[in-house]
Design brief:
Layout: H1 4-21, H2 24-29, H3 39-42, H4 46-50, H5 52-55, H6 65-76
This protein binds calcium ion (CA) (2 copies).
Length: 85
Amino acid sequence: MKVLIPIAFALAISGTAANAADDPQFNKLDTDHNGVVDPTEAKQMPTLAKQFSTADTNRDGSLDQAEYKKAIAQSDQKQPHPGAS
Ligand SMILES: [Ca+2]
Ligand SMILES: [Ca+2]
């Protein structure tokens, strides 16, 4: 019984980390799997391509997952987010 606890704990941690790091849609767009979506890859999703320059908040020429998720959240729900400033 005792040994199950650390295993379950480890699984819970790795499962959470994987979910946070791997957005299936992001991975689909990131066709070369370098961890960022560049402008060419963004063209697969016209709404994302259109707001690419705005979404690229750190101006490195590509969208990381944080930038991607922010852009998607903004295009998905135009209405103000409860709790967002
Ligand atoms: Ca890429
Ligand atoms: Ca960027």
